[in-house]
Amino acid sequence: MSITTEIPTRELEARLSPGALVMDRDVIDSYAYDKALFCPAGQALGLVRARTVDDVVAVMVFAAEHRIPVVTQGARTGLSGAANAIDGGLLLNVAAMDEIVAIDPVNQTCRVQPGVINQDLKTALAEHGLSYPPDPGSVAISTIGGNVATNAGGMCCVKYGVTKDYVRAMTVVLADGTVTKLGRQTAKGVAGLDLAALFVGSEGTLGTIVEVTLALKPALTQPITAVGIFPDTASAGRTVTEYMGSGANPSMLEFIDGPSVAMINAYGDFGLPDNVGALLLVQSDVKGAGAMEELEAFRRVAESNGGTEVFVSDDPADSEMLVAARRAVAPAMEKYAHTRGGGELVDDVCVPRSALGEFFERLAIIDARFDVEVATAGHAGDGNMHPSVVFDAGDEVQVGQAQEAFAAIMQLGLDLGGTITGEHGVGFLKREWLGRELDAGARLMHTQIKDALDPLGILNPGKMLG
Q: Topology of 224-415 in CATH?
């Protein structure tokens, strides 16, 4: 595709809501990146802050007419570079489309625009006795549209599933400006192919989502919490494998390694012990005595696998503080990284639960091989780990070592039968790795679907599929 160096600004502006088109270079450039490192951003020609579906349609029709690439964005909290600007393209930001259109307590669904913040939706639903379980670490700042675009998960997904498990229907603007409704409003339905599911995790490469219908749950029961302390990461991993293999169904099962615990303790007072090898945070929201029985079962498994201490509490304040500690991993690690030169690469591999013990043993070897620091937290209950590589971003040798370590971790995930990304997405950061995970038939299907829905190649080109 040839790169356009300018656009007929007045023509585009006339098609949009007043003030939607931004041509100020400083503002455009401020929207050029998400939160990923090592992902280049080009110089976009303009920024459209869409307020309506008509704005999105106008952008896509205009872009198709002039063969201009379009990168759709939300809150830009992503960690894979999927929202980064492209040279000669338009940035289409839908964060201002943030209306909760309808909440339906009878059918336990809601309709929302893509810019709705995940936590704001949870707060609104609570007034109706309903809940939306997916809770990524960025729950307070990420949008539902972005969550759908990357199939976000979070800490509750071990029991309640990820974003795709809640998407019933969506309205999408296709590459030529066509508005189409995909999915269904009903609890059941198999009329035709599940095209809505195709768009979950598509990272803006197939169309722009402008409304989503989500399935909901009744308000979740207040959980009780256990914390297991381990001398090393491998014993914690084996505990997860055995505990989940016993038929346990916790509402949360999170992992934090020793270095991450130290970073959290330096960041704030969350009551975590010092000098631990690893920590497992477990919650059960089974009603009645079942919750305590589930956590006592965890205690037995943990102790049989070398766990040194297990604490169980039914105090909601304890639960809130421990969950807050787990959510503090990202800012605590960011603060720590700034003291080590500012470099941080957050990986996102997911392996079978049965492989967690081996994963941690081999991750320790990777950590020892490179002159960088690797600290890990993650959603242990479903095998989704987030090893973070911390390094000096101003040291070329360390930058190279960090990239090699990052790649080695992804290869480890594949070697153990896992995937290169559990919830952060492919974007630019991992686009070369997607081809390694997919076989030839799957690669062909991906490119054929992309070509069918985006024949001009204008939707987020260079991301995900390369």
A: Vanillyl-alcohol Oxidase; Chain A, domain 3 (3.40.462)
